[in-house]
Amino acid sequence: MWTSIELSFHSQVTYHHHHQRHQLRKAESKKRKLSSRKLAYSPKRAMVELRHSGSSLGSRASSSPMKRDEDASPLIFNDHVLRDDDDDHPRHSFRDRYSSFWSQIYSFFPFLNDDPRFSQHGSRISLLLLVFIAVAGLISFFSILQRLNSPYLCKKDGIVLHCPRVKENPSLWENPFSATTSWKPCAERRDGGMSDLPPENETSGYIFIHAEGGLNQQRIAICNAVAVAKIMNATLILPVLKQDQIWKDQTKFEDIFDVDHFIDYLKDDVRIVRDIPGWFTDKSELFTSIRRTVKNIPKYAPAQFYIDNVLPRVKEKKIMALKPFVDRLGYDNVPPEINRLRCRVNYHALKFLPEIEEMANLLVSRMRNRTGSSNPYMALHLRFEKGMVGLSFCDFVGTREEKAKMAEYRQKEWPRRYKNGSHLWQLALQKRKEGRCPLEPGEVAVILRAMVYPKETQIYVASGQVYGGQNRMAPLRNMFPNLVTKEELASKEELAGFRKHVTSLAALDFLVCLKSDVFVMTHGGNFAKLIIGARRYMGHRQKSIKPDKGLMSKSFGDPYMGWATFVEDVVVTHQTRTGLPEETFPNYDLWENPLTPCMCKA
Q1: Residues 71-92: pLDDT tens digits?
Q2: What burial class does residue 415 get, using C-beta atoms within 10 Å of its C-beta: 0-12 exposed, 13-18 middle, 19+ buried?
């Protein structure tokens, strides 16, 4: 690969050997190519190149990633960008350039020639000139070397080129503003305090809940159940993790969480028992009988609702089931100490089993030593599973066949929302404009490159089955080849014990992401919210990136935005989106930002 100095010098040496009739054609050709380059390096063009890398995208994607790399791109760097692209004039052979080069040298430094007419006076002048040029060359060389050590992108003639990275910018892996905040966790249990809880047989009664959904939705339900038991001064029966149709998992509470620690840590807050009391003989009635179920709890209900409407029935029946229980407790309409208790459950009482913690620590250790020495790593939570793509009702890059199959899938799964499908295109555009669509792997790759993360970045991917498979992952993998999952970090034998339960595998992803140096979310959801919230609560020194999808959508759709402008927009926009504690406001999600009720000034 030629450097800019070599290009400049080569053009000066060979310039006088071009025929004058080619100069006009060369100027016109460069004008056309500069115009095309200006468009070629827009984020939108970059996304088009990335999206064409997968064979699943039809005939447009027939060229392989290797073939695509032959085209100049600010994202996939190669030496073609630096070559002389002017094909409007005949190229000189290497021998012609070689002869031309030495003829120029002899004209400037005649003492190098064997011509006997060479004079001693001319030799001294030429020798001084040669020394001067050598010193200037050394200064230029060290100046260029210093620039190459920069971790940022560099430009030539308006084209973004790759600068080899010698030392990374520390802010890539550290939260640059963490030192400016003075918040600390303050929801932990106060040791040595006296419990004022009544005995189990003197509480208002027993409540029982089904924790529905995936692992993280279940986690939130458990935290809410403890809070509701506290509000009503009731005894909580250990929650059941419900096996729903989507997850089809037979996991029990004790298969994931440390029950003894859970009960002991909360002993001064809420009475918790492992099972339904023995005096209640018909346990099946608790699961099926409407007489034992409270079903009219609204979403985000205030604490007063439970006191006025649920507590009397608990006192009457002594044991009541609450279902459904997803998001059945509000945030701003409950006392601060109740929200603080929810944080206590989430960040301190709910601990995974020791074997899950140990396996997660092993995966983290392997991520940090993939290069042979200690290295930071990024955790990326991709939300581009078939179910998520379908539920979002957003448009995505794909063939007509893929889009037709997705339309059939949406019509089958969500017929009320689908209707006749005529309104979906406008809905998809509006949702993408508002930043409510999941980021595609290729879009994530462009954003990370704009944030100046190098190609060598070690990335742990936490995701379900990506819609489109390896073809859809190809753009991200081409730009960041060091992508790994838990299945690639651990052997089948090591993961065999965790495959019995889907939630056990999800717990491994959760912990590896939680302990990463940088966490990147690509869409909403309980997983990302809980990760970012925990990292905020535990010290907010680790960077958590939440992309501004609305702004990114606007930039991706602008064919006239240059790459340098796009990079500047990404960097400036995300300077403050790094996971620092934020002041909360009504209805703010407690799980993503636990500052006000659960953190206090240091």
Answers
A1: 333 443 333 333 444 444 444 4
A2: exposed
